[in-house]
């Protein structure tokens, strides 16, 4: 096992399009790093550059202390799991698993015992003599996982491995992969993992750290809690969390009772906690508040924004309330048992943000100016 | 139609008048359709049936009736035909045909796979132009190249050998096959090859262990087409082969028409039946992969 380092790695194409803009990333030995971002953010390209399936047009990739830029994939000490499994269709599971070892001309007994080990771990012993077309999606993905595991690589690369599975299976495979990672760590042979996904649930539940990407730039690298509580910018704030954080333009201004945020002619005081964190004293900003941190109060209450209910979504355990405040829609999540059943679409309602949980972003750069 | 009929067999209630009417109509439809298909099918296959039947007729009976079943079946046609009017038996000619067909099929399989793999999976300078030229040769009529080709092979001193027939196949000379393989390859996801590369395979190993097995149905189709076309090729051997001893089956059949004053039609037909047999046998052996090959190649390409 080894650490993985990306040093100002770039990817540009012949037609001048630049997909990756000099990213730096350090994945520690045994760390589970998730690359996440919307489609087209170059997360897969980055992974494929680490794997050696795409050329690196700038910067360096290091596995352990070796620069691997010019090594073929087979010599980099990596293993990869693909989204569509990419099992060799003409080989039985057993031969699929052992293909890499057979290419290296390892002794037969060693290959046999490695195959047994891996199939034991992944519970695919009874599938060993089947062909890939005789496997279900989940089974095929386990075999693909086994094919990576058997090589005992220095770095594991996952390219959206669960996207082709149904929701239930995805949840169980998620647990299986994280369990496996923990188990390898406990057995003192920790696995360094880079895992690409566009699913923030996968990212939050699996990653030791998460690297959020957008348009070939890294937006923030942090552990899940930090990412959620202290997003570095408006993009990360909006990308992580369900439903999305409410991000609306507002005016920040000082006053005798302390600073306040104004939108649609309504002012709310920012409170001591947020005021202490703020790096700016006035001007146009983007205010951000998670739907979970909005409290429903009576219309026209103090330190609350009054709006009109435009939609109500009953989710069972909670209710998503959409309210329009001066043309901006706020989403507010209320547990079902605390929800006032009399509220209806069209009603006026007050939304009181928990200011200690509020963020303020620079309206132009999107940077979080309330982190200090 | 089947939707209307389906519930009838499952329901316990007696069928209504409308259901009975529909059922009867659909039965009539089926009878009509199958009768028509059978008749047309029979008309289509009749010449072949006649060929096989007539090869067992005597020469005198040949043109007395259009019906294919021989009155007095005889294998004399086969005996005479096999001997031929030359010093060689048909065994020689079959052997000659195989000397052309087998190297040609093997050459086609290897060269077309390599060229198609190159075009489908690699970027190299001039790829677009080269591919355009390849496709252009598809559209070029064979006749145009006959004379320059002949002159070329004459310069090389290859006349009256099998080389002019075989060598082009080893150089992926059949653009159609290359094109067919490229189309098939394009339908195969690249991830499998990428997985093989991650597993440590080099380009040649990826081709041999991963791509070729997946390509097998297409490869079988290519081999089968090449086998049948070469077996039936008349013009190529006619131009390049001048010694009777080296004649393949297709030329030998013509030989028996030339040599005799009164044609022994029954022996000609008998040898025609034999000449068809290898292609038919090979086709039925490879039928499953062949149909898989042309259908996937066509649909996904």
From TrEMBL, chain A:
Record SMART domains: AAA
Enzyme class: hydrolase
Pfam family, one: TOBE_2
Domain ABC transporter: 4-240
Residue ranges of coiled coil: none
GO (cellular component) term, any one: ATP-binding cassette (ABC) transporter complex, substrate-binding subunit-containing
PROSITE patterns named among the record's database cross-references: ABC_TRANSPORTER_1, ABC_TRANSPORTER_2
Alphabetical keyword list: ATP-binding, Hydrolase, Nucleotide-binding, Transport
CDD domains according to UniProt: ABC_MalK_N (cd03301)
Molecular function GO labels: ABC-type maltose transporter activity; ATP binding; ATP hydrolysis activity
EC number(s) reported in the record: 3.6.3.19
Protein family: Belongs to the ABC transporter superfamily.
Protein name: Maltose/maltodextrin import ATP-binding protein MalK
Source lineage: Bacteria, Pseudomonadati, Pseudomonadota, Alphaproteobacteria, Rhodobacterales
Automatic annotation (TrEMBL), chain B:
Localization terms from the record: Cell membrane
Record GO cellular component, one term: plasma membrane
UniProt KW keywords: Cell membrane, Membrane, Transmembrane, Transmembrane helix, Transport
Highest taxon of the lineage: Bacteria
ABC transmembrane type-1 domain span: 94-286
PROSITE patterns (alphabetical): ABC_TM1
GO biological process: transmembrane transport
Pfam family, one: BPD_transp_1
Gene3D superfamilies linked to this entry: MetI-like
Membrane topology, record value: Multi-pass membrane protein
Coiled coil: none
Spans traversing the lipid bilayer: 31-52, 93-117, 129-153, 165-185, 206-229, 263-286
PANTHER family in alphabetical order: ABC TRANSPORTER PERMEASE PROTEIN MG189-RELATED-RELATED (PTHR43744), ABC TRANSPORTER PERMEASE PROTEIN YESQ-RELATED (PTHR43744:SF6)
Protein family (similarity comment): Belongs to the binding-protein-dependent transport system permease family.
Name of the protein in question: Lactose transport system permease protein LacG
Native species: Pacificibacter marinus
Gene name of the record: lacG
